[in-house]
Amino acid sequence: MMEEDLSTNNKKGVISQAWTRLSQWYQGVVDKTVPWRITRWLSSIILVCLFLARVLVTQGWYIVTYALGIYHLNLFIAFLTPKIDPAMDFDADENGPELPTRANEEFRPFIRRLPEFKFWYSVSKSTLIALGCTFFECFNIPVFWPILVMYFITLFCITMKRQIKHMIKYRYLPFTHGKPKYQGHEDTGKVIGSPK
């Protein structure tokens, strides 16, 4: 009896150790992709195009496509939204809270609710899951797809209108075009204080 328990525990230990090693290897691969922003997004765009091509060729899985579109829209809104919502700032003056716009105001950097890397990771993972769903007939629910398209376009317009109004009201822009460049003294190549 004790030998069976020991062999069961050893099997569980081997499986758990293999799973831990696999997850560490996977996390290492994901971590190595962090500096490759353009390559990551191009691969995600190709993945979405493969998914759309599969849906168009097979003429099905419109519910899966609609659910994926709604999920991507929610991720995009979280990507555009600041982590600390100025609308919820209770220390506001009569004009409401806003991000600093002048040099003499307190510096508060724009921090996203959903960072870029997590946004990319979630888009890629959800697209792979949706692509996997297209191989199972149980997810191919017959619907009249033009209604889903019109509903998604309406939802997208309403949501983006609300987000743009929020950005205008609290004066923030979620996109940056690079780091600020500071001008310093030019290096003339002269060594100061060297013996003659």
UniProtKB/TrEMBL annotation:
It is a multi-pass membrane protein. Keywords: Membrane, Transmembrane, Transmembrane helix. GO terms for cellular component: endoplasmic reticulum; Golgi membrane. Its main location: membrane. The keyword Transmembrane applies. InterPro entries: Rer1. Pfam families: Rer1 (PF03248). GO terms for biological process: protein retention in ER lumen; retrograde vesicle-mediated transport, Golgi to endoplasmic reticulum. The keyword Membrane applies. It is found in: Membrane. The chain crosses the membrane at residues 41-57, 63-81, 143-160. Involved in the retrieval of endoplasmic reticulum membrane proteins from the early Golgi compartment. Belongs to the RER1 family. This is Protein RER1.
